[in-house]
Design brief:
The chain is mostly helical and 548 residues long. The chain folds into two domains: 2-39 and 100-395, no CATH class; 396-546, no CATH class. The protein has 21 helices and six strands. It has helices spanning 2-39, 51-64, 81-94, 99-120, 127-140, 143-147, 153-172, 180-196, 200-213, 217-240, 248-253, 262-278, 281-296, 306-324, 335-346, 354-361, 366-415, 427-432, 446-453, 459-468, 521-531, and strands at residues 420-423, 436-439, 473-476, 493-499, 510-515, 540-542. Strands 2-1-3-5-4-6 form a six-stranded mixed β-sheet, covered by helices on one side. α1 (2-39) packs across α17 and α4 (99-120) runs antiparallel to α5 (127-140). It is globular and about 75 Å long.
Length: 548
């Protein structure tokens, strides 16, 4: 008994910063969840429509054996294979539920915090320093808003963090060949990162390049094959189903190399990254910080030092991400880059021991320290501001999804069960309702995506596909037509619209209901009238069906 008590005492003596940080994280999650549940009448609602795409695919795999947002056909609508099959495993055991992504995100966010602590603890001399760093990690990433996106980003952060650190420590080792256990761990983390998010391929590319420079050729080849295998296997299956090699979201939102003109070449060779960087101050201050720390410590540490390598991985991965992928969309796309940068920079703070801090307090090195603090504040301000806005928008974003997409799903499940509809936001409606869905953006409809990629997406394309699929109604953002989408067919009839207030996350504040066929107008009108009393009072109704 005494031995157990001593071990518990030792654990708390070493891990109290982690325990406190986890407590802060869980309190923030609990508070946000409580407010969100209360705001959304007790429903678990996420801050985006996108997580429901994964949930719909997982639900249909579990119930119907179909990898698709609908139970009727395959759709290549997710670039996170591991997350989808993780949901499948949970749904298979416990049944499909809205709370599963929230639970998984809490687990992986906590795991990221534990990983940060365990790895940083090796380099930091003072436990007093670790606690604020953990809190920075929670706030700046930002973990709590990411949890309420209901997506795979907390798992990606955990995988990217561990993968980068194991790679950096392996690269810093002087031996020509890695130990088999470490190499297997490295390959496993590589596989996890890539199957969690395809964007991890940027991180893999940088790490492979470093292994080649280190002349660890076998490891570089093994990592390349490990990253390529899941992409190739899924790509071959997707092509066999009539889709593209890469998932539809990447085909639509990704930025691919182009060499057809001087302008395209300049953009491909880095101008695209610079352009995005200038509109993302939190990223360029992060990159400046990493580069500055690397240069400042260049004479003190060799290039192949673990900490220096982590900075290299962060900077090069960030530049590749900026060139070929997206940023923003509720702070999630670049969250793993922010997390990696915080971790990489934190390891250098270990150079400031408790004695160094006491010297600063007594006035020694006060001027230099003051300059460093001022610079740190200036560089961190964009990230602090971004994190603040993210926290402020989390609950309102869940409210937006509840008032718009969630109500659309309820409406369709009540009045259009099993029928064919067209839409341009496909997550909640396909998770909540049993529908055949024509996705006008192409995320879930191969025909639309192929038309977009061939630059042959026209009004007649929409008319032909809706006729072929016997589409009854369309739930769409009218402002998209003629801008992001071709004009809708002239025989479509507007029957009504719903408008939400204080929109922070929905693509448009107003969603409109159109009858694709003239014979469908009465049923759509009656359905909207009947559902009107079930809508939240804050949703503003308009259009012909409201004129009684």
């Amino acid at each position: 008994m005494m031995i157990i008590l001593r071990k518990i005492k030792k654990f708390f003596g070493v891990s109290w910063p982690l325990i406190l940080a986890i407590g802060v994280l869980w309190l923030a999650i609990g508070y946000t969840a409580t407010v969100s549940f209360s705001t959304n009448q007790g429903n678990v609602i996420y801050a985006l429509d996108d997580p429901y795409i994964h949930m719909a695919i997982a639900k249909h795999i579990t119930k119907h054996g179909v990898f698709g947002v609908t139970p009727y056909e395959y759709s290549s609508s997710s670039s996170s294979l591991f997350w989808v099959f993780l949901l499948v495993a949970v749904y298979f055991i416990f049944g499909a539920s809205e709370i599963a992504p929230l639970f998984l995100n809490v687990v992986f966010a906590t795991g990221s915090l534990v990983m940060f602590f365990c790895l940083a603890h090796r380099h930091l001399r003072s436990k007093l320093i670790i606690l604020p760093l953990l809190l920075f990690f929670i706030y700046l990433t930002p973990l709590v808003p990411l949890i309420f996106t209901g997506m795979e980003h907390t798992l990606h952060i955990l995988a990217a963090l561990f993968f980068s650190y194991v790679a950096a420590t392996s690269l810093s080792a002087p031996q020509a060949r890695l130990a088999s256990g470490r190499e297997m761990l490295l390959l496993g983390l590589c596989f996890l990162a890539v199957t969690t998010r395809y964007e991890a391929i940027f991180q893999v590319f940088v790490i492979v390049l470093l292994f080649l420079m280190r002349k660890h050729f076998l490891t570089a080849i093994a990592l390349t094959c490990t990253a390529a295998i899941p992409i190739m296997v899924y790509g071959l299956y997707s092509i066999s189903q009539g889709n593209y090699w890469l998932p539809n979201p990447l085909m639509i939102y990704g930025s691919f190399p182009e060499f057809g003109s001087i302008k395209a070449i300049i953009h491909t060779l880095g101008y695209g990254a610079i352009k995005k960087l200038m509109s993302a101050p939190h990223l360029y201050t992060m990159i400046i910080s990493c580069v500055g720390i690397f240069i400042f410590n260049f004479k003190k540490y060799r290039v192949w030092d673990t900490r220096q390598l982590l900075l290299i991985i962060v900077v090069l991965t960030s530049l590749l991400h900026l060139q070929f992928a997206q940023t923003g969309w509720f702070y999630r796309y670049e969250a793993y880059l922010i997390a990696l940068a915080i971790f990489a920079i934190s390891l250098y703070i270990g150079d400031y021991s408790a004695e160094s801090l006491s010297q600063i307090i007594r006035g020694k090195s006060l001027v230099r320290t003051s300059v460093v603090i001022v610079l740190a504040i200036l560089l961190l301000y964009p990230s602090f501001f971004r994190a603040k806005i993210a926290l402020q928008q989390t609950v309102p974003a869940t409210r937006n999804i509840y008032e718009q997409q969630y109500q659309m799903g309820r409406f369709l499940s009540t009045y259009y069960d099993g029928q064919s509809i067209a839409a341009n936001d496909i997550g909640v409606i396909n998770y909540s309702a049993n529908i055949q869905c024509l996705d006008l953006t192409g995320l879930a409809s191969a025909e639309i995506l192929q038309a977009r990629k061939s630059r042959n997406y026209t009004t007649s394309t929409i008319a032909e596909l809706t006729k072929k699929k016997n589409t009854q109604i369309a739930l769409v953002y009218l402002d998209w037509f003629g801008r992001d989408l071709p004009s809708f067919p002239s025989n479509w009839t507007l029957v009504g619209s719903w408008t939400i207030e204080n929109n922070v996350i929905c693509a448009e504040k107003t969603v409109s209901f159109l009858a694709v066929k003239e014979t469908g107008i009465p049923h759509l009108r009656e359905s909207l009238i009947s559902f009107s009393e079930k809508l939240p009072p804050s949703v503003v109704e308009s259009g012909p069906y409201t004129r009684n």
